[in-house]
Amino acid sequence: MSSSAPAPADPSPEPAPSPFHRLAEFVAIPRIGALALSPTGRLAVSLVTLDRDGKKWQSALWELDADGQRPARRLTRSAPGESSPAWAPDGSLLFTSARPDPGAAPAEEPKPALWRLPADGGEARPVIARPGGIGSFAVASDSGDVVVVSSTLPGGAEPAADEERRKARADAGVTAILHEAYPVRYWDHDLGPAAPHVFWAGQLPAEEDPARPAAVELRDLTPEALPPNGAGDDLALSPDGGLLARADDVPDGPAGRRSRLVVTDTATGETRVLVDDPLADVYAAAFSPDGSRLVCVRESMSTYAEPPDYTLLLVDVADGTACELTPDFDRWPSAPQFAADGTAVYFLADEEGRHALFRVELDGGAPVRLTGDGAYSHLQVARDGSALFALRSAYDSPAVPVRLDPTAPMQDPAPLPSPATVTELPGTLQELTTPAADGAQVQSWLVLPEGASAENPAPLVLWVHGGPLMSWNSWSWRWCPWVLAARGYAVLLPNPALSQGFGLDFVRRGWGEWGEAPYTDLMAAVDAAEQRPEIDETRTAAMGGSFGGYMANWIATQTDRFKAIVTHASLWNLEGFLGTTDAAYYWEKEWGDPLTDPKRYEQNSPHRFADAIRTPMLVIHGDKDYRVPIGEGLALWYALQKRGVPSKFLYFPDENHWVLTPGNSQVWYEAVLAFLAEHVLGEEWQRPALL
């Protein structure tokens, strides 16, 4: 019998203990990106959130109170979002956005342009646009002069010419690209036929009529174009805008590349080489406050026998003479910046599972570590020298803005009020140190889920980092152990041989021998973790991405101690990988030529030991991954299927080395958790609903 009474509404789901317990809530957690400091002490951050449809992440800019008293306030709002904030000396905020120009005819697909938000607020307006979009930009700290980087077709320095050439290719249905030098791809995109150029904009005009912003005339400072593999992002303008310093990619042998440091007179366009070391890459330049000197990173070229090493160079801009700032520092400095008075340099470096901030005086002395725990990025130096600002993260904290003292060692600053924070974690974080087979000390992070105890031991997942020349030291939204902890897993995050931050000798232990010390270090860390009463050594799994995926594959060929293995974007056949990756010359330095020196390929390539695999494996790969091309995942998948190894293949046709869209990220975790539940927990396989 029917009734006209409405059916009762479905009960609302119980609130989750934390956003990590529900994947839809996890991917919706707001996350902080870039940080920018104005000459007058105003702070801005980019905040990434889900869009209204929940199908992509979008960013907006927020202002923070540098004194930590007032709450953050939102500055921008648009569907395409805003990113790369930088303050001009007049207090206006510059950023890039693909939002439509309100004063122009609607475009089918707006390209990112440079926008300006007035110092006293109001509507943001576009100030520079190009047919190929604006990829990056730099602002002179004193004069406010601006340079922009834009992808430009040959002969297309003038916007109309560039647009005409793009239209001609489109009208003719031509997508082909003719290459005359290596490489042809970079991470997830094809290189050419357009290449980045640096354009001089000078001082941006005053905005007299907001509806019709004054046109900015651009002058090409790099008429020969830059190599299209990211070098155009490494720019620095002198405080007065008179000089542009940049990393210049040049050939290194028949198919190799290296970077040197060049400076361009922005008035004349004349470019001269400042630092050119045939045995090193030189990049990441920053000017001193008076513009007379530069500090930059020198990364020695790796060889078959030796890994790279890093140091900082102090360079005289007038004559190019250089001296080392960190000659005896057994860590790898990065992102250098001068102190406000020009007497010291700040830099970042991995150390003992942290990414710490250091200060080194120009008149000598060892670097002083200014931070204790945590991983720091986006360092900003206050113009008056009173403070430093940065983003700080750790494995128990996403990135948050902090204020630091310029000289005090081993600080642990409190976060500034910001629009994003995570207050509840489904477990605890501990640090472990384990002796390896050769006596080296292997540092690890161990995430323990809530409730793990001797009476209720947790299953263990070994998670191997990528790189390989990196370390687990900071929060990761992409590789987040807390999602697993919310399901009751303990997660072990070791830093084995090849990890940086433990000295060059620690890297040497695994150089060219990926299957040796890195593997035995990982097993030693797992052995130690399994001795803890909170860990169930009978229920374990291993997983990793990129180099971590290589190690997952290698582990599968060397032991059957794990119940399941998850391998993402992984190397399987080292010789096959070398011929198809986007930067083969880099890896060949370490492994040698496979035709004349095949030893390291034969000893370390997992595919040669495929017959030994017994462990169920989940293979994950994206088709737009040019760093580890899809052929590696396909070959591994075929090898497993051919041998009857229980296995599944999660394929992303439009993702790259990572998984960058919210929906695919959620499905990634769903598939991984379902695979672990089946093989580690003994539950019935539950295929994710959208797969």
What does this structure look like?
- It is a single chain.
- With 691 residues, the protein is an alpha+beta fold.
- It has a domain at 427-679: 3-Layer(aba) Sandwich (Rossmann fold).
- 15% of the residues lie in helices and 33% in strands.
- The strands form nine sheets. It has an eight-stranded mixed sheet, with helices on both faces. A four-stranded antiparallel sheet has the order 1-2-3-4, with no helix packed on it.
- The chain is globular.
- Mean pLDDT is 94; it is low at 1-11.
Arithmetic mean pLDDT: 94
Number of helical regions: 11
* N→C terminal distance: 39 Å
CATH superfamily of the domain at 427-679: Alpha/Beta hydrolase fold, catalytic domain
Strand order of the largest sheet: 30-31-33-32-34-35-36-37
Number of strands: 37
pLDDT under 50 segments (min length 5)? Answer: 1-11
* Helix content, binned percent: 10-25%
Strand proportion: 25-35%
**What is the architecture of the domain at 427-679 at the second tier of CATH?**
3-Layer(aba) Sandwich
Keywords:
Rossmann fold, eight-stranded mixed sheet, 33% strand
